[in-house]
Write a structure and sequence with these properties.
alpha/beta, TIM Barrel, 8-stranded mixed β-sheet, two-stranded parallel ribbon, 11 helices, 10 strands
Length: 287
């Protein structure tokens, strides 16, 4: 472990909790972003158990410099994946499920059809299940986005990840304004959907830049916000610029509440889908 990492950005977990859930996922041929992105919360989440399922394979067509997911040529879409995912939801006893994916720029719909298929299967088999999706930008194609929204997720999440100035360095194939348009379009397509986005701190951004992004998110109707410390998953990824102190995260949370976000989770170990079930409970409490 990097000796520069301060105590507030270190976390330990129980290996036994990981093995049990990993075994069940491998038996079903499923992937989680928890594993692929080397999330520091994996032990805590798997112990509950909860997981963020990653559909459409584990190979991404984009080369974001913060991400540990494998880059390259993805496999064909797996038609059996929605059914196997439903089996996992039942086996793990989940009440709130998060579905994300690698970016699939190789597919005409960006993978939106697979998101929709998963949502429909889960809605049919588990009527009380809360379904959250964390999607790529689908190249900005609104018809692809409409496939997902029409299927009926409860929460639509699309992460901005960082401030506009750092996009070329951190996520060179993404477009800040396009991501904002995706969030606005999702809300316009179905005002009942809670929209959500996430940011990483410690990539070289300033506090004023983060606050400006938060204002941009509120301007497109974003309801929920997560902000957490970026931790370098592998040596090939971009270096951490700063380990942001907890009090800075607290300032972001307070600012977000004043801006009108329904719920803000801002702390070093916060991740986009971390404690997603508790966040949804917070929505209802604050509504």
């Amino acid at each position: 472990m990097d000796d520069r990492i301060p105590s507030w950005s270190r976390k330990k977990y129980n290996l036994g909790d990981l093995v049990k859930v990993k075994r069940q996922l491998r038996e079903l041929g499923l992937h989680t972003v928890c594993e692929s992105a080397r999330c520091p919360n994996i032990g805590e989440c798997f112990k509950k158990p909860t997981a963020t399922f990653m559909i459409l394979g584990d190979v991404c067509t984009r080369r974001c410099r913060f991400c540990a997911v494998t880059k390259g040529g993805p496999a064909p879409v797996d038609a059996g994946e929605p059914g196997r995912l439903a089996v996992a939801v039942e086996k793990l006893g989940l009440k709130h499920v998060v579905i994300t994916s690698v970016t699939r720029d190789d597919l005409p719909d960006g993978g939106a059809g697979q998101f929709a298929a998963v949502i429909r299967v889960l809605r049919e088999q588990f009527p009380t299940l809360i379904i959250e999706v964390l999607t790529p930008d689908f190249g900005g194609d609104e018809e692809s986005l409409r496939l997902v929204i029409t299927a009926g997720p409860h929460i639509f999440n699309h992460n901005l990840e960082t401030v506009p100035r750092l996009y070329r360095t951190v996520r060179p194939q993404a477009v800040y304004e396009r991501s904002l348009r995706v969030l606005r379009a999702a809300k316009d397509m179905d005002c009942r959907v809670s929209t959500k986005s996430g940011l990483m701190a410690g990539l070289g951004e300033t506090e004023s830049e983060v606050l400006a992004v938060m204002e941009d998110l509120r301007a497109v109707g974003c309801d929920l916000l997560t902000i957490g410390q970026y931790l370098r998953p592998m040596k090939e990824n971009i270096e951490v610029s700063e380990y942001v102190r907890p009090e800075v995260f607290e300032r972001y949370a307070e600012a977000g509440r004043k801006m009108g976000f329904i719920f803000v989770a801002s702390a070093p170990f916060v991740r986009s889908s971390y404690n997603a079930e508790e966040v949804f409970a917070g929505i209802n409490a604050n509504a």
